[in-house]
Amino acid sequence: SSGINAEYGLKETKPRLYSDSHVGKCVTYVSLIVMANQYKPTSLLSKPVHLLKAKNSFQDGEDYGLGTLCTGKVHVDTVDGDHETCVSEHQQQIASLISQRS
């Protein structure tokens, strides 16, 4: 991973966030992937987790791997749209799902 970091000028602990260009967005994405792959939890979360995921998601796994980080139950609900539109266009659905789990 240090080769990727060096090639794109990324720091080990913090992602570089860009918003103005396609290249900048790609660098941000790579930075976040590197950071996530380097994360090693020291303990497991013992509380229940409620994951709201976009219906049109590219992520693998039903719970995105959260079950391996938690001893509590992982509740998974799907929200219409993709990663961006599920929040911007489906707030009522999100509010309803949160209310059902509260």
What's the SSE blueprint?
Blueprint: H1 2-8, H2 22-38, E1 49-54, E2 74-79, H3 85-88, H4 91-101
Could you describe the largest sheet, including whether it forms a barrel? 2 strands, parallel
How many β-strand runs? Answer: 2
The first-to-last residue Cα distance is 40 Å
Q: Strand arrangement, largest sheet?
A: 1-2
> Beta fraction of the residues?
5-15%
Features:
alpha+beta, 102 residues, 4 helices
Describe the protein.
- The chain has 102 residues and is α+β, with helices and mostly antiparallel strands.
- It is 38% helix and 12% strand.
- The protein is built from four helices and two strands; from the N terminus they run ααββαα.
- Strands 1-2 form a two-stranded parallel sheet.
- It is flat, with a radius of gyration of 16 Å.
- The mean pLDDT is 81.
Short description:
The chain is an alpha+beta fold. The protein contains four helices and two strands. The chain has helices at residues 2-8, 22-38, 85-88, 91-101, and strands spanning 49-54, 74-79.
